[in-house]
User: Fold this.
Amino acid sequence: MTMFGRPGCVLRVAIAIPTYQLFDYLPPASVEPEKLRPGARVRVPFGPRTKVGYVVETADRSEYDPQLLRPVAEILDETPLLFPQDLQLLLWAARYYHHPIGEVLQTAFPAPLRHGGKLSAVVAKGLSLTETGAAVDLGRLARSPVQRALLERLRRSDRPLTLAELSSGMEASRLQHGVVRRLLTKGWVRWVDLPKAAAVSDLCGSSGEHPLLNPAQSQAVEAVTRSFGRFACFLLAGVTGSGKTEVYLELIRQVVARGEQALLLVPEISLTPQLETRLRAGIGAPVAVFHSGLSESQRQSAWLGMQKGEVGVLLGTRSAVFTPMRKPGLIVLDEEHDRSYKQQEGFRFSARDVAIMRARLAGVPLVAGSATPSLESLHNVRRGRHHLLRLPARAGNAVEPRYRLLDIRGRKMHDGLSEALLAAMREALAEGGQVLLFLNRRGFAPVLICHHCGWVAQCRRCDASLVLHQREARLRCHHCGVEQALPPGCAVCAQNDLRPLGVGTERIERALQRFFPDTGIARIDRDSTRARHSLERILDEVRRGSVRILLGTQMLAKGHHFPDVTLVGIVDVDAGLYSTDFRAAESTAQLIVQVAGRAGRGERPGTVLLQTRHPTHPLLLCLLREGYRGFAAAELAAREAAGLPPFTFHALWRAESRTMEAAMNFLEKLKQALESEGKEISCLGPAPAPRSRLAGRYRAQLWLRSSRRMALHQALEVGLESMRAGRDRSVRWSLDVDPVDLY
Ligand code: ADP
Ligand code: ZN
Ligand code: ZN
Assistant:
């Protein structure tokens, strides 16, 4: 290679495999090395095959023998799809979370691009049924189950499906392309060009009707607009229904009018339809949506719309935070306190913290809104890092709900419902209101116990009891997903008296049907909303009023408006009061306030009843007397005294193996390596994880903390170095920086 030695002639490439290193390649002979810019995707020879890689940097020379370097097989992007800022953000995230760089980079791309799709070729093709295909008697295909499954899927779908959609959930080996080819040859299916994916609207909804902002809203908007064009973080704290969303919408309108783009992040898919409608109605620019409930081609067109600058707003969940933006102008994080912003597996990033870094790199303002701000953000306000914007009252005429504790000690309970709660429900219904009951536990009962000997149905693979799902007559593990039919009797004493212990949403639903036989009741949890569009259907019935009692898990706590709900019942407050997780108090308070916020959002005031056996619990009293603000101040003081986040910095090193001993030994060695090095960190453990066995594997963890962030990160580097030295393949480990979940 004659050009070796010229500047920029070695490409340092990240590949999506679990390694921290970059791989050196030469540019293809035909390409001017100057043309290769960081961020571009390339196809590189790797072992016997080729892989998609991402150029991270170019270098003058390699540490390896130049004779051994291989040229890149193909350049996939002449112009990188990632803007320099985006690449910078991803590299920062890889360093900060100590996660393999190739895996971090690939999270920025939608699947087709990740797999090496060229931009020109990504006009999506889909398979659609022909008339003959639609008429085939599926019974005849008993011997060709894959063909039959594909035909069934196409029949159930109201539009053509891409190959990826068609095969999703199937084992890869099952969908050989041969099967599709056979269907094509038989004339049962054909390829069609997919219409422009529905994720991007063509409508530039005119800036239509929107309420005149009240003074607090206007002040908030002005504060942020003054920061347009530079970095600043705002915490928009406003009770539920105070009009935060109207503030976001006005800011987005203004950003779009400047010719810039906005990124609006929400914690949950279920929140996107309502917001999407409001966005489309009045932003004055195309809106795109990005979340895991969309097809790959929809996600890709949203992503590209943003990258090309055709889209004004991207509304998305966690993973949308890395979408390239041609002209970034504003980032909004709705419900910033929500734990779903933290990815809990693989690349464990916090979309909230990444968004802040992104705003900083892009030099744009970030607005984080919540009725129940995270303690981290409140701490940042105190340190002067975030500006606090307050919306003190509900918009319009609605007033805040009243709280009342229902002391249920010694009271007669009916499937988890006290008579006082039932009476209040009857009264609210008689006055024409709707009732919302909240219980964060799905299924019929969390435990099935033998009344004769006390045996409890346990998961074989986890240290957890199996949850009874009565309607389907099954026992399910909510941790690993294992399920089985209801046993006829006790596995130990063989007696025939198994009884459900405790209450889940399914059980309450049945009790409600008994107590309110003539009232429309709907349950919202992951079981009842599994089918497509079922959540929207239920919400619609609630809005139309045919459902008067709404019962559900935390899916209910978020973002929805139920203007006619006048009574909220929190069935079991106590579950959140006692926990090994130091964040439990914070999340319980947030949940209570969020659920309560669903009540009385219309003209009528709402009441919130909390069933508890601990009516004098300090958390409850503080929350009821002083509201979330008072609670948060007390909790921050307690965290500071205990040296917990946000006053100290944490990481959790998890290990799992076939035996607890192996996992513990692994972490013990790691601990020695860490302690020999740093004095500024302390290690707690190793100890078995709170859920010490999951899916058949034993889990242990080592908890690291430091009062200096840099010291923690240096220690983590030392730890990772020691991992590289001694590989133990029987132990799987992971590293979680700023963990929010200690399980
Ligand atoms: P949040 O996002 O804080 O929960 P929203 O922005 O959704 O609050 O507002 C709650 C309700 O109040 C919505 O129906 C909204 O249309 C209405 N609203 C918001 N701002 C105003 C205003 N300035 N005047 C009248 N109604 C408003
Ligand atoms: Zn028994
Ligand atoms: Zn299990």
Residues 113 and 119 are 8 Å apart (CA to CA). The two ends are 53 Å apart (CA to CA). The chain has 20 helices and 31 strands. The first strand starts at residue 10 and ends at 15.
